[in-house]
Fold this sequence. Notes:
Elements: H1 2-8, H2 14-48, H3 57-69, E1 73-80, H4 84-90, E2 95-107, H5 108-119, E3 125-135, E4 143-155
Amino acid sequence: GNRAVLAALGHVDAEAASVQGARAGESQRHLHHEDLASLMSLKDKAAARLPQSEDMGPVIDELSKIANVNKLKISKMQNVALSDKEKLELADTYYGIQRLDVELEGNYVGFYKFLTDMEKQPRIIRIQNLDIQRINEGDRQGDVKVRMDLRVYYGKAKADQAVKK
């Protein structure tokens, strides 16, 4: 085995080198196993943030609450259908995405707080597009009008996750 190969390569102590190589291999397998366990842990943490429901009602309620606390006016918050390309990309994943088109108006500091509060939500919410425009009308100096395209993630039901063979 390894001892004969190492001896042929000219290692003086082929047996010691062979054992060290075996130990290094064990160490590499052990690290690989730990890395895999770490990745599985991260996947489990992400899955915990993916409710098994695509119901947007609770998300809209929570985002509305956050906007009100930060004195923002919601002018639009509605579901938007995914494109065919997005549907295809999600076909074999363990998660789904709901799009939410949001428009807000209010003080810039309030909007910043809205973002930090949204980031603290247990559910994974990603901002896809963000457009911020300053409002310079009368007493509204420092106010902004914001349009965001949000992606709200959810876990697919087990039946949806079956791997196609």
